């Protein structure tokens, strides 16, 4: 923005230092990932000796093979997909409906409806009463325990409301004259015009459900119901040593050395694959929320 | 009866907009059951609760559970830990994104700026379990941090088991995860600052530092204040999930906070009423903090959330 003034000596020094600092930020952010990936492919001895940095040493795939053969791991991965799809679908329906209602400025009682949602951002019932409620509703060990309590994120709701408010009223008025009722206007006029914000919301919700672990940790009692995040949690908490059924001693030491790295890589992989494509949607969504929220 | 006694305005609104109201029914049911019912459920902090019985408890016991936690030394220990960790998080995790955003704003090469942004946003998208897993791996006795210490002739440190390291580890991992993503709102605010202001400042003889001080910082002040208020509001609710993943009985001394303590007493030891009393205490303080911060900010600088 300020390209007209002559760079002074001090400013050139500053630019150099700035470049160094930002390079440092990039290195500090990326190094842990690269190191984990390198470890996941490295041999046990080289890992223990602390020789692994950015590149695998003593290339070894034993742990990957063992994890790939682990039924629980794949089952939990499947659970993650299932929980994410169901939870996101429910969240999208409820959030879209409520955001649309809240976007209607003429609606009587709109202020109260907004207030009901916004108040929950600043005060919540807390862990224990929610836990007691979910238990007494008999939702434990079902997908509903994960999907229903998180069906509306107020932040997402406000982003969507802001988007709906920005649509021109004339379109809906014209549709009304053509004889469409409210439901018809929402599904045939408003939603087709809102593909960008709907896509953003689907991403927001699905990434947050995909990444969540605590709900399942709290409300699921059996290993086979867990999402993959809890599988990883049990591993890093030392609650399980990973699966090594039928493995020899040599394999066991190898697995012990890098099963955490292997599981981290396999769990993070889907997010890392979609990240470059979805990043800008997230940024624009946050900005939209910031302007209006 | 309700329609005939309702004020005519409501009757007309219902007749005209009943389809809109009908769309609000399921979401309202959600808020009622999963948000407001638990708020009411906090009455078990003052009532005896039997697992399997009514979620609102069996009979009034007054302030028994409140007195219990106020005289519980462990509660005061975790309260102090919470203040420490919350304070350190505020001191480091609030300003670092501002500094990072200002630095990014000075980068003249667009591609470089984009690259740094993309990389620094990445940890935000990962599950907190992965972040904790990576943190633990980096700090393992055979991990990179101890590797670097080895260059200086240091013996490996068992970071994960040392109480004196817990706060540093927590805050460090929090910075790693949130600093980049935290710049977005500031970078947005920075693009809205009028170039004419910089022009005017230059004509008045302001060098770059003075331009930053007199133009840039005032330009992002509303964003700073808003985020500061929000940060203060969540002060006591320190990253509960991350602490649960990073701490262990050896580091409870410094790492155990209000939320993890109430999780263990409530869910693991089934003392629901006792834990609910602690949770209610935490939530009320949170509400008071954010309301006070908001009020102070509105009175002094004119920026507020509501």
UniProtKB/TrEMBL annotation, chain A:
Residues 77-270 form the ABC transmembrane type-1 domain. It is found in: Cell membrane. InterPro entries: MetI-like, MetI-like_sf. PROSITE patterns: ABC_TM1 (PS50928). The keyword Amino-acid biosynthesis does not apply. One of its GO terms (biological process) is transmembrane transport. The keyword Transmembrane helix applies. Keywords: Cell membrane, Membrane, Transmembrane, Transmembrane helix, Transport. CDD domains: TM_PBP2. It is a multi-pass membrane protein. One of its GO terms (cellular component) is plasma membrane. The chain crosses the membrane at residues 12-34, 81-101, 113-137, 143-164, 185-210, 230-248, 255-278. This is Carbohydrate ABC transporter permease.
From TrEMBL, chain B:
PROSITE patterns: ABC_TM1. It is found in: Cell membrane; Membrane. GO terms for biological process: transmembrane transport. SUPFAM superfamilies: MetI-like (SSF161098). The chain crosses the membrane at residues 20-37, 83-104, 227-247, 272-296. Keywords: Membrane, Transmembrane, Transmembrane helix, Transport. It is a multi-pass membrane protein. GO terms for cellular component: plasma membrane. Coiled coil: none annotated. Residues 79-293 form the ABC transmembrane type-1 domain. It comes from the Bacteria. Belongs to the binding-protein-dependent transport system permease family. PANTHER family: POLYGALACTURONAN_RHAMNOGALACTURONAN TRANSPORT SYSTEM PERMEASE PROTEIN YTEP (PTHR43496:SF1), PROTEIN LPLB (PTHR43496). This is Sugar ABC transporter permease. It comes from Streptomyces coelicoflavus.
């Amino acid at each position: 923005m300020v390209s007209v003034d002559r760079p002074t000596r001090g400013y050139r020094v500053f630019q150099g230092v700035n470049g160094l600092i930002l390079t440092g930020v990039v290195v500090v952010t990326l190094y842990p990932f690269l190191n984990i990936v390198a470890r996941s492919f490295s041999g046990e001895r080289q890992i223990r000796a602390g020789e692994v940095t950015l590149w695998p040493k003593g290339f070894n795939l034993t742990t990957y093979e063992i994890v790939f053969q682990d039924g629980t791991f794949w089952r939990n991965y499947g659970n993650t997909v299932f929980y994410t799809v169901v939870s996101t679908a429910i969240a999208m329906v409820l959030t879209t409906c409520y955001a649309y209602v809240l976007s209607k400025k003429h609606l009587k009682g709109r202020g109260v409806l907004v207030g009901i949602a916004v108040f929950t951002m600043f005060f919540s019932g807390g862990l224990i009463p929610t836990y007691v409620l979910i238990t007494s509703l008999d939702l434990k060990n079902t997908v509903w325990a994960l999907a229903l309590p998180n069906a509306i994120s107020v932040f997402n709701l406000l982003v969507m409301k802001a988007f709906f408010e920005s649509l021109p009223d004339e379109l809906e008025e014209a549709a009304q004259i053509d004889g469409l009722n409210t439901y018809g206007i929402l599904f045939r006029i408003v939603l087709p015009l809102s593909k960008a914000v709907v896509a953003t919301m689907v991403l927001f919700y699905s990434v947050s459900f995909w990444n969540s672990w605590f709900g399942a940790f709290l409300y699921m009692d059996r290993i086979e119901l867990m999402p993959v995040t809890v599988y990883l949690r049990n591993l890093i908490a030392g609650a399980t040593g990973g699966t090594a059924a039928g493995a020899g001693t040599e394999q066991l030491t190898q697995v012990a050395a890098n099963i955490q790295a292997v599981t981290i890589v396999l769990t993070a992989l889907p997010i890392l694959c979609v990240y470059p494509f979805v990043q800008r949607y997230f940024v624009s969504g946050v900005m939209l929320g910031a302007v209006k929220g | 009866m309700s329609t005939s006694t309702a004020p005519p305005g409501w009757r007309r609104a219902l007749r005209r907009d009943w389809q809109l109201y009908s769309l609000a029914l399921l979401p309202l049911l959600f808020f009622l059951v999963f948000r407001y019912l638990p708020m009411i459920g906090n009455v078990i902090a003052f009532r005896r609760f039997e697992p399997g019985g009514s979620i609102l408890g069996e009979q009034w016991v007054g302030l028994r559970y409140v007195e219990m936690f106020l005289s519980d030394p462990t509660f005061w220990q975790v309260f102090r830990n919470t203040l420490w960790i919350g304070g350190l998080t505020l001191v480091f995790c609030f300003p670092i994104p501002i500094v990072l955003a200002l630095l990014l704003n000075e980068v003249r090469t667009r591609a470089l700026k984009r690259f740094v942004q993309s990389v620094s946003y990445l940890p935000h998208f990962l599950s907190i379990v992965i972040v904790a897993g990576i943190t633990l791996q980096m700090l393992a006795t055979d991990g990179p941090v101890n590797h670097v210490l080895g260059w200086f002739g240091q013996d490996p440190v068992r970071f994960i088991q040392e109480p004196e390291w817990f706060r540093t580890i927590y805050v460090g991992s929090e910075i790693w995860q949130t600093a980049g993503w935290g710049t977005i709102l500031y970078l947005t605010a920075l693009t809205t600052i009028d170039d004419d202001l910089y022009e005017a400042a230059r004509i008045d003889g302001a060098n770059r530092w003075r331009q930053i001080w007199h133009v840039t910082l005032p330009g992002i002040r509303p964003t700073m204040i808003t985020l500061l208020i929000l940060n203060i509001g969540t002060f006591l609710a320190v990253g509960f999930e991350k602490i649960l993943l990073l701490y262990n009985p050896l580091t409870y001394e410094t790492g155990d906070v209000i939320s993890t303590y109430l999780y263990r007493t409530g869910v693991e030891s089934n003392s629901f009423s006792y834990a609910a009393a602690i949770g209610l205490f935490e939530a009320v303080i949170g509400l008071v903090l954010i309301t006070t911060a908001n009020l102070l900010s509105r009175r002094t600088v004119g920026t507020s959330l509501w």
